[in-house]
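Anyone? Bumping this.
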Amino acid sequence: MRVTIADVARVADVSKTTVSRVLNGKGEVGGVTAARVREVIARLGYVPSSGAVGLARGSSRTVGMLVPSLAWPWMGEVLQGVVDTVEAADYGLLLFTCNRGAESVERFTGQVSAGAVDGLLVVEPENTLDRLTALYRGGLPIVLIDDRGQHPAFPSVVTTNREGGASAARHLLAAGRTRPLVVTGPPAFGCVRDRLDGFRSVLPTDLVVHGDFTEGCGRLAVERLLAAGTEFDAVFAHNDISAAGALRALRAAGRPVPDDIAVVGFDDIPMAEHTEPPLTTVRQPTRRMGETAARMLLDRLGGATVPDAPVVLPTELVVRHSAP
Amino acid sequence: MRVTIADVARVADVSKTTVSRVLNGKGEVGGVTAARVREVIARLGYVPSSGAVGLARGSSRTVGMLVPSLAWPWMGEVLQGVVDTVEAADYGLLLFTCNRGAESVERFTGQVSAGAVDGLLVVEPENTLDRLTALYRGGLPIVLIDDRGQHPAFPSVVTTNREGGASAARHLLAAGRTRPLVVTGPPAFGCVRDRLDGFRSVLPTDLVVHGDFTEGCGRLAVERLLAAGTEFDAVFAHNDISAAGALRALRAAGRPVPDDIAVVGFDDIPMAEHTEPPLTTVRQPTRRMGETAARMLLDRLGGATVPDAPVVLPTELVVRHSAP
DNA sequence: CTGAAAGCGCTTACAG
DNA sequence: CTGAAAGCGCTTACAG
């Protein structure tokens, strides 16, 4: 059925060793012989079995990726960055989610122990951190893509949340806004604290409502403050979804954006261009974060030492109509 | 380093054969012996090497998935459906894209020939169809998730594009709209023809502008017709992105939606709830399409025969404010 | 009920 | 420059 190295060897009238050598470019092989072997390989359409190669070499040339959910709006970009990088290096990508809780984690660690992957890329490990730490201590290369907490034990890729918050504040300040409302994400997340600190370092405010990254939290926060008659001339929401909620509440209340109140989000997901008005937001370099993390992991698998300190990729303020 | 079946056998004082048997539940094994082996497996934390198992059994317990791009708004849902199903069956998922053109396809076919996957899930094969056909003829199980053309050679999962178009028309008709504009996707796609036919079967119109699924095409179509003074009281756009473009053009022109002109999209991507006004749209069951395709492939890998005829999953009209 | 041995398709010392 | 042989970690007839 399948064409094997033995078939090639037989037809080319050499040993399997020799075929293996021309395949991997290792060891000296006579020019004429090598040419003949190559010709036979092409003619027979021989492709080495990845399973057998992996077993013999003790590595699978595959990296695993563990994500909390694939349906999040920015996950596609991260994934695309990872896949591009991994494919270019001729590695495979094995994808796992942990949205079925403990069972998923179980299955996932199993596959890892089974040696199905040479290394791991993990996005925001939620309840997996102890397992991951064990695997990492056991020698499995791991790189985190994570803003939510600090895990000094692992190499990681993050973005400039503090500076991102600060850039939003500078932009609003330059536009003459002095009384901003901040709608945060879950206060337990490191990125949330950083975005808030950065913002306040430029534009101090005590008008802070703790949200949870949903549309509803942005909407409710604005509705309540308006109902209470609280004054504010800008909203900085910690993600675009809750910024969209704020926009909706302002529109419903008849408060023009940006003339009356300016709105700035965070992430720059595809939706941000399509809100009314289009959303000014702090762009996370999601694709580049994926690429960078993958590159770090591949470097590590290639024998390089990767930095202990988190690699920090810059955010970028994207100015649209909600805060010109 | 790694715990092998030989270690387990030695410690449990049995042969590797016996360990293999309790591992796979094949053949008779004495109760006491089995219990002892199981205890040793647990104590040593033994996990069979997936590479070795695959080599010995001639299958990898992994399915491949080939997608044109991971950044498309509905791809995350498809992927999530696939991953959930595949994980539940204890298979791995190897992810490939073909967004680097011929090179990607090359790499991809290579991995397939290398036996890295037992079967394949393919989303909208663009320039890959000949390669795929060759692989399929060669015995590789493949299931397509594809609306764009008809490929009777492969098992596939599609949605009710014709009925989806018809449902949009019925909804508009019931609301008293009689003069609709249709902004299509690329006319070469089968789904586009179906959506158009279904729509016109209920609400005949010759006001059809061929677009390309971009925001710009929806915006331009509306701008031009308005500039030309053409009368219409509704827009049916073939995807949500171009519907968003239509909304923008109508807003810019001061034509109220839905009072003056109603707008219906297609897909129900996350953005659809956040446009102004929120978009009425024909929902594609993307997640279920992923689940269904994965299930068909797994069934096929399990030895079942899968239907030749495409499996058709129903669309659902989601009514929001743009066309109440 | 259990085991010795061959085989899956490669790579890699080792020897010449 | 080239090859015979062992080994990677499993499964599976075959034999008892």
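Late reply, but here is one note on the structure posted above: The first strand of chain B starts at residue 62 and ends at 67.
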